[in-house]
Amino acid sequence: MIGNRAGTGTILNDDGAALSIPNGTTLEGQSSQHTATLTIKFPSAAPSAGSLLFSLGGAAQRGSGTSCLKAAAHSDYLPSTTSPVAFAAKATSVVLRFTVCGDTQFENDDPITVTVTSSDWFAPGAHGNLTITNDDPLPG
């Protein structure tokens, strides 16, 4: 040990501010497809252009392709926005779009869970649900 020295340091917070994803709902519909959205809100305007990655989960059955008519049977939705999603400087949110596949089969309400896994300017980890609400009658 060489003497008794003290120093002062500063720890800078480089984690970024938290994003938020307010939950949303949409009716399933009967036989056609429609677009539903979920918005990822930024805590402040983005200082410059960037992108964020997100993952999809939940009980809703994810289909593939561009049309519900060509998707696998019992598909609840098709993701219209892919990850990563880019945003411009000064953006305050990004909107994710989903194609919801209507049907006439009674089923439970199905959530699509969106989780932000990384972001250029903001802390990851935000999650929210877009719930596809059943609008079909219980079979008699």
3D architecture notes:
The structure is a single chain. By secondary structure, the protein is an all-beta fold. It is built from no helices and 8 strands. β7 (110-119) and β8 (127-133) form a beta hairpin. It starts with 23 loop residues before the first strand and ends in a 7-residue tail after the last strand.
Task: Please outline the helices and strands.
Layout: E1 24-27, E2 33-41, E3 50-57, E4 77-79, E5 85-87, E6 93-101, E7 110-119, E8 127-133
Parallel strand pairs: 1-8
Antiparallel strand pairs: 2-6, 3-5, 3-7, 4-6, 7-8
Short description:
The protein is mainly beta and 140 residues long. Helices cover 0% and strands 38% of the residues.
Strand content: 35-45%
Helical percentage: under 10%
Which CATH C-level class is it? Answer: Mainly Beta
Low-confidence runs (pLDDT<50, min 5 residues)? none
The structure class reads mainly beta
CATH architecture: Sandwich
Q: What series of H and E elements makes up the topology?
A: EEEEEEEE
- Mean pLDDT, nearest integer? 89
Number of helices: 0
* Total domain units: 1
Question: Could you give me the name of the CATH homologous superfamily?
Answer: CalX-beta domain
Instruction: Identify the overall geometry.
Output: elongated
Q: How many angstroms separate the termini?
A: 84 Å
CATH topology (level 3) name: Immunoglobulin-like
Describe the biggest sheet? 5 strands, mixed
DSSP, total strands: 8
